[in-house]
Amino acid sequence: MKIVSRLTCILLIVFLAGCSSLYEPSLKVKDATVNIRTVEKDISVHSSDGQEESYSSVYLSYHFGIKNTGFKAVEEIEVTIEPGPELAELSTKTFGINVFDKFERERAGFGIAFSGATKLTRKEEGVYQLDYNLGVLEQSNRFLVAPSTVELEYLLASASDATLIVTVKDKELGRVKLDERN
């Protein structure tokens, strides 16, 4: 009788452990792409003589979808890009810093923008975008000037040498190597 009781307890524990995993966050990254884009005259400032000056920004943009494949809503979704060795080296060579490193980027005055849902309901899919500001096209004393077209082409060619990291509530949920997806 004790053997049956113990076996029942073990089976119950295994079953409950399996059921609890059904409610763990489960996300799937889809359709990751990267490109260089220019936004015309997206920055406007006034000069010392009151004239408005406009600048066009250049961005390295990562686009991707994330689908909630789990059984409950997922909140506090965050995504980051971790460059591979080739991309980190090229970034340092081109800009003098690794633009993917938060502290180096902020210290040098480079920006990053994120758009996308921070919450996905069950079976919902969201579209996400990470934009790394690479400077402005026009010569400027106020803003960092973007690299040359050739340097941007090299950067784009290496941009998939990166890993997309998805976190939920500060817990890493997954990593997707972009060069293996494309």
Indicate the topology.
Layout: H1 2-22, E1 27-46, E2 52-68, E3 74-75, E4 77-83, H2 85-95, H3 102-108, E5 112-115, E6 119-120, E7 125-136, H4 149-158, E8 162-168, E9 171-177, H5 178-181
Antiparallel strand pairs: 1-2, 2-7, 3-6, 4-8, 5-7, 8-9
Helix pairs in contact: 2-4
Essential attributes:
5 helices; 9 strands; Immunoglobulin-like; alpha+beta; single chain; three-stranded antiparallel beta sheet; four-stranded antiparallel beta sheet; 182 residues; globular
Question: What do you see in this structure?
Answer:
- This protein has 182 residues and is α+β, with helices and mostly antiparallel strands.
- It has one domain (25-181): Immunoglobulins (Immunoglobulin-like), CATH 2.60.40.
- It contains 5 helices and 9 strands, in the order αββββααβββαββα.
- It has helices at 2-22, 85-95, 102-108, 149-158, 178-181, and strands at 27-46, 52-68, 74-75, 77-83, 112-115, 119-120, 125-136, 162-168, 171-177.
- Strands 1-2-7-5 form a 4-stranded antiparallel sheet, covered by helices on one side. Strands 4-8-9 form a 3-stranded antiparallel sheet. The protein has a two-stranded antiparallel sheet with strand order 3-6.
- The longest helix is centred in the N-terminal third of the chain and has 21 residues, at 2-22.
